[in-house]
Design a protein that fits this description.
The complex is a heterodimer. Chain A is an all-alpha fold. Chain A has 25 helices and no strands. Chain A has one domain: MetI-like fold, CATH 1.10.3720. Chain A starts with 31 loop residues before the first helix and ends with a helix. Helices cover 24% and strands 36% of the residues of chain B. In chain B, the strands form four sheets. A six-stranded mixed beta sheet of chain B has the order 7-8-9-3-10-11, with helices on both faces. In chain B, α2 packs parallel to α4 and α3 crosses α4. Classes of the chains: A mainly alpha, B alpha+beta. At the A-B interface, α20 and α21 of A face α2, α3 and α4 of B. Chain A: Belongs to the binding-protein-dependent transport system permease family.
Chain lengths: 587, 375
């Protein structure tokens, strides 16, 4: 008999008595794990509903929320639809969103196929650079494009000098769609590239055995298998272009082209006596549309998972050889990267160090630091930079922790509302930033004690945090699915409760995913500004809102300087975080 | 050593019934196996005992302590049940050394440092891996990982050991040796053990008693010999060991011997039976391949049943020969020590060698299809 036995006949040797099962305290008859699960559920529900409920309420009220004695009415909607301008807004939005979606796919799908599945010169490098427009906010991208391709842009002016005319007009729906598509293409690219990497290589081998050449394999096997990620990402891109504010605001304002988001911006923020009822009604409409698209997307993805072939075996498919076409393909990708993102950003950075940026005069003659000087002489501008960093840093921690807990509850708990937790965490995907801003503004104004938060950095963190939550959730959830459920079960049978399982086992295993989420949220919140337009007071602006202010004042040099600062902060942070991650993943 | 009592266990996922009225009692120190094809509910039953799943109805008691009783709305969470469990994938925590894996359950129970060291050493010693305590799981072979998982399940002296197909990830040779080792260990420890497997050899060689499950029902509980020799249904006969099935009609039953006219040839065979059946009823005759004898057609034989057949195939499998004989449209499997038979032969078996089941439902239509030839 060994001592692991507890046979009655054998007296256990000293110090090795039978160990009693652990007992965990109960509060109101439930364990602490269940309490945390309910806590997360309620917190998420409050977080998501806080901005929506006031908007809905306002849209049916005949006067502003803060005025007493209001009546419920559908008048706001009637007014909105009979407003002559609104039909044009809807039409513009539709053209812009559809155009952006189509263009994004035209850029992203061929690139994903070429980079992942064919032998391409510098394929790895191109694949990596494909993704980096993601790190730059669309506001900055818009500034960069205007600097180069706008009516007075560097390249436009150069062309006019040579040919006498400019073959494009950036300040149009088409120009907006092209710019937005360049910015959003990395998202569609990542979806398609991941699907391609995970697809079963033997399918292609089978086609090859049947005698199919590389081009035939591409068009008859590889591309048809991409249907799920294409459908999924096109819906995502569509809903993102419905809500985007930056590019339509920058390009559309001078030529009076209005889309949904700019309509909300001008009616809610720029008008002297905003009609809150109309603002509420329009916000509700947009919410309905974006929630609809995200719901469709969720449904599509659910079905799609059935026929994405993911195998545990790592059989790397052989890359297809396209012959001379590969040089054309590589050139096309290089053109996208250089003219789409690299040149506009470099132009913007260069602009920040010059007085005047035009081919008519050698920009090196007017090198200066005065753009930066202007930013740093005004305490409000300096504060907006520190605000951005504080918001992004604090927000990254808070949002990542919340997302981690939400993932644990949604994917690793017997909690009966686990699915609801997941939907709540992903719901903000469907909530445009500007609407989140309006919603929280009203929510803080209406809730007792909300005044303490109104106008503080905390308000900005809450609003940005809500917007970043789906990103964080989406980056942690796949990581937890990689961790076998039996690891949890083993911990439970060993005596750890739900909470203990996390602290003793999952915490360490999830650390890389958590750090990944931290980086992603930091970058996302650094880019974010639209939710702050309504929420910021004079002292709580962020870089994005300050850039817009300076842009309206015509201080394009200082806008470029701020953009450069934001890019630099993001780059330094990502680099340091990556270094840190490399050093710690082995632990 | 505690007793495990499971009664009236039901489990439903939506409209699908996974467990249907499962009842059994495991005696103290017994090695009890849940055997069945995948999806039969054996793992669900084990998970209900472990508390990883909660039953829709029913109760589970271990050592007199109720773990689950749906009637009284009682449910003890997994972590408070003090059971040891080994998972199919071993579920060793990959970021911890072997020692750290074993420390965790002890740390939860707030065991003193000295006792931790003693217990861990002894648990690892039991599985013969005390020298590997500083390794990480990925540095161990599959067999070693499985033994560490076992040590982790034993280190806190659990009341019952639950094993969920622990040998299925090992390769064939190692699996056989591990089986023998596991049996010795269990006898030595005398710990009540519940074992889940779909492998009939494992079940027969390891268990004190086996419970055979099909589609959420518990079909038969008994000692290995009982399950093999007297399977309660044709399905059990087919699943545990291999078996030939012939459908036919009962002619008459006299003195415990049933005369059955086979559908495939129209021949009559005699089968020992205690079933209460009346002439004309559809029946199924089951005979295990090793209970059949083949003799050359020329030889003079006596026996209850002598059938004329011919050899279709003969394969050499090392210790014996496997024959495929043609009987009407059926292929009959026979195991024989002699390998020189060919052409026309005779198939001989006694009335006691065959089993009789009511009805003509032969298990596994697909397998039966493969065992059919044109007449």
């Amino acid at each position: 008999m060994t001592t692991t036995s507890t046979d009655k006949a054998v007296q256990p040797p000293a110090g090795r008595s039978i160990l009693p099962a652990p007992k965990y305290p109960r509060v109101f008859g439930v364990g602490r794990g269940r309490l945390v699960q309910y806590g997360i559920f309620i917190l998420l529900a409050l977080f998501v509903l806080a901005p929506i409920v006031p908007i809905l309420y306002q849209s049916f009220r005949d006067r502003p929320l803060y005025e007493a004695g209001g009546l419920l009415t559908a008048g706001n909607y009637v007014k909105l639809f009979t407003d002559a301008g609104f039909g044009q807004v809807v039409l513009n939005t539709a053209i812009f969103a559809v155009g952006t979606t189509v263009l994004t796919l035209v850029i992203a799908i061929p690139m994903a196929v070429l980079v992942v599945r064919t032998r391409l010169p510098f394929g790895r490098l191109l694949g990596l650079s494909m993704q980096w427009p993601f790190f730059i906010s669309s506001l900055i991208l818009g500034f960069g494009w205007i600097t180069l391709y706008g009516p007075a842009g560097f390249i436009s002016v150069q062309l006019r000098q040579v040919f006498g005319f400019v073959p494009w007009n950036l300040y149009s729906l088409g120009g907006m769609a092209v710019t937005e598509a360049v910015g959003l293409a990395p998202i569609a690219y990542v979806f398609c590239a991941n699907a391609l990497r995970q697809s079963d290589a033997s399918l292609e081998s089978a086609a090859r055995v049947c005698g199919a050449g590389p081009v035939r394999i591409l068009f008859q096997v590889v591309v048809p298998m991409l249907r799920p990620p294409i459908v999924y990402s096109s819906i995502l891109i569509f809903s993102m272009s419905l809500e985007t504010l930056s590019v339509p605001l920058l390009y559309g304002t001078p030529v009076r082209i209005e889309v949904f988001s700019t309509f909300l911006y001008t009616n809610g923020l720029q008008s002297i006596s905003p009609d809150y009822g109309i603002l509420g009604a329009a916000s509700t409409l947009i919410l309905a549309v974006t929630i609809g698209t995200v719901a469709i997307q969720a449904k599509v993805l659910k079905n799609a998972q059935r026929f994405i072939s993911v195998r545990g075996k790592a059989t790397r498919p052989r890359l297809l050889d396209l012959g001379w076409i590969r040089w054309v393909a590589a050139a096309a990708i290089v053109i996208y990267i250089i003219f789409g993102a690299l040149l506009p950003i470099l132009g913007l950075v260069f602009r920040s160090f010059t007085m005047i940026f035009t081919p008519l005069q050698n920009p090196f003659d007017t090198l200066t630091l005065s753009n930066y000087q202007r930013v740093f002489t005004f305490p409000v501008y300096v504060q907006s930079i520190t605000n951005s960093v504080v918001v992004a840093a604090v927000g990254a921690v808070l949002v990542s922790v919340l997302a981690l807990l939400a993932v644990l509850v949604a994917r690793r708990s017997p909690f009966k509302f686990a699915r609801s937790v997941e939907y709540l965490a992903l719901a903000p995907q469907a909530m445009p930033g500007i609407i989140v801003g309006i919603g929280f503004f009203w929510a803080f104004a209406l809730t007792p004690g909300g005044g303490w938060v109104q106008g503080t950095l905390m308000a900005v963190i809450i609003a940005f945090g809500l917007r970043a939550l789906p990103t964080a959730f989406g980056s942690i959830a796949p990581a937890i699915m990689q961790i076998g459920r039996e690891l949890d079960d083993a911990a439970r049978t060993s005596g750890a409760d739900w909470f203990g399982t996390f602290f003793r086992i999952l915490r360490t295993l999830l650390r890389p995913a958590f750090v990944g989420a931290l980086i992603l949220v930091f970058v996302t919140m650094m880019k974010e500004y639209s939710a702050a337009l309504f929420l910021s007071s004079a002292n709580t602006g962020v870089i994005g809102t300050t850039m817009l202010d300076l842009w309206v004042q015509g201080n394009t040099g200082s806008v470029a300087a701020l953009a450069t600062i934001q890019i630099a902060i993001t780059a330094v942070f990502v680099a340091v975080a990556n270094l840190f991650m490399k050093g710690h993943t082995d632990a | 050593m505690p007793e495990v009592q499971v009664s009236g266990l039901h489990k439903k996922f939506g409209d699908v019934t996974v467990l249907n009225d499962i009842n059994f009692t495991i005696r103290e120190g017994e090695f009890f196996t849940l055997l069945g094809p995948s999806g039969c509910g054996k793992s669900t039953t084990l998970n209900c005992i472990a508390g990883l799943e909660s039953p829709t109805a029913g109760s589970i008691t271990v050592d007199g302590v109720p773990f689950v009783d749906t009637a009284k709305k009682l449910y003890v969470p997994t972590e408070e049940r003090n059971l040891g469990m080994v998972f199919q994938s071993y579920a060793l925590w990959p970021h911890m050394t072997v020692e750290a894996n074993l420390v965790m359950p002890l740390a939860i129970r707030k065991v003193s440092k000295e006792e931790k060291a003693v217990r861990i050493h002894e648990a690892l010693d039991t599985v013969g891996l005390a020298h590997l305590k500083d390794r990480y799981p990925h540095q161990l072979s599959g067999g070693q990982q499985q033994r560490v998982a076992l040590a982790r399940a034993l280190v806190y002296s659990p009341s019952v050991l639950l094993l969920d197909e622990p040998l299925s990830n090992l390769d064939a040779k190692l699996r056989e040796q591990s089986r023998a080792w596991l049996k010795r260990l269990q006898v030595e420890l005398g710990i009540t053990t519940v074992y889940v497997t779909h492998d009939q050899d494992e079940a027969l060689s390891l268990s004190d008693r086996i419970a055979v499950m099909f589609e959420g029902n518990m079909t038969q509980i008994g000692a290995p010999a009982e399950i093999y020799e007297r399977p309660a249904t044709a399905a059990v006969a087919a699943f545990v060991g291999s078996c030939n099935f012939f459908t036919g009609r009962l002619e008459e039953t006299r003195g415990g011997i049933a005369r059955v006219r086979l559908d495939n040839t129209g021949l009559v065979v005699k089968v020992a039976s205690t079933l209460a059946l009346s002439p004309g009823d559809a029946v199924t005759v089951a005979v295990r391949p090793e209970r059949l004898t083949i003799t050359p057609a020329s030889a003079d034989v006596t026996g209850a049943n002598v059938l004329d057949t011919s050899v279709l195939t003969r394969s050499y499998v090392g210790s014996r020969y496997e024959y495929g004989l043609k009987l009407g449209t059926n292929v009959v499997q026979v195991i024989s020590p002699t390998g020189n038979l060919d052409g026309d032969v005779r198939l001989v078996f006694d009335a006691d060698d065959a089993l009789l089941y009511a009805g003509s439902n032969v298990p596994s239509a697909e397998a039966q299809e493969l065992m059919t030839v044109a007449s």
